[in-house]
Design brief:
8 strands; globular; 281 residues; eight-stranded mixed β-sheet; alpha/beta
């Protein structure tokens, strides 16, 4: 039987948020402070392809907030992008550290190639400016998009992606292939729990079924892209496939989509996630 939507007044968690170590606006410490101000019971820091912001977030959380160490790994299969969240991973795991170093190198190569394509299209950008914008975080298309806007080649980030950097953009460069089953295995071997991020309202059930057969442990039921129909659908799918339910705002910073903690993800999802990771809550 499907459970009713979580009550907005109960304890809430946000298990999907980004910092300056990937494409977020807030530092890990600032993100944690905001979560505490918002009265969240738990927060997961899930930067793209990096765990480098976790120590700062953990120090800031102290005993005031349950801090869930996480990551969001980008994968592709059959021409579709799938993002796999990993919760309670061990950042010191050698295989994980090695693969994340490779991701960082691949991201840099990709940005340089897209910059070269932009130059040939007459939309030249300064790669060093892109890298400075990324700072200590992993560099990616959002940073390149911001420099395109600064340079006057696009009105806003949405146009930069639509014209140049998106899947059909004229300067788009595909990432080196990394399959979802590889991400699932990487997360498992690092002691973590793998969850399919923001499947969206249109993903066919067979994709989730295939990922579950590969060892996927959960699915993001609550997400800003998911209306009530999608939430109920993924709750039913999670129950049928014995997958954990998680959710989060996918927070990147003020004024960018939903605010941190504004999605009413119930506290009850935390305990099963911790049990799956062998964590005593």
């Amino acid at each position: 039987m499907l459970r009713p939507p979580p009550a907005s007044g109960g304890p809430r968690v946000d298990l999907h948020a980004h910092t300056t170590y990937s494409d977020g606006i807030l530092s890990p410490a600032a993100l944690v402070r905001l979560a505490i101000e918002k009265g969240l019971a738990a927060l997961a820091v899930t930067d793209h392809d990096t765990t480098e912001g976790l120590p700062e977030a953990r120090d800031a959380a102290g005993s005031d907030l349950v801090l869930v160490p996480g990551i969001e790994i980008s994968t592709s299969l059959g021409g579709l992008d799938h993002h796999i969240l990993g919760y309670y991973i061990d950042p010191a795991n050698e295989a994980l550290k090695g693969r994340l170093a490779q991701f960082r190198s691949e991201r840099l190569d990709r940005v340089r190639e897209m910059a070269a394509r932009l130059s040939r299209l007459g939309a030249e950008v300064d790669v060093e400016e892109v890298l400075n914008l990324a700072g200590h975080g992993v560099v990616g298309r959002p940073h390149l998009a911001q420099v395109l806007v600064r340079s006057g080649h696009a009105e806003d980030v949405d146009e930069a992606f639509r014209r140049f950097l998106g899947l059909k953009g004229t300067a788009y460069v595909a990432r080196p292939a990394f399959r979802p089953d590889e991400a699932i295995a990487l997360i498992r071997d690092a002691g973590g729990v793998s969850v399919l991020a923001h499947p969206g309202p249109g993903l066919v059930d067979s994709v989730v079924e295939s990922l579950a057969a590969d060892g996927l442990r959960g699915i993001e039921v609550w997400h800003p892209q998911h209306g009530p129909v999608a939430v109920r659908r993924y709750q039913a799918l999670a129950e049928r496939l014995s997958l954990l339910e998680t959710g989060g705002s996918d927070y990147h910073g003020p004024g960018r989509s939903m605010d941190l903690g504004d999605l009413a993800v119930p506290f009850r999802v935390l305990a099963p996630l911790q049990r799956a990771a062998g964590i005593r809550g």
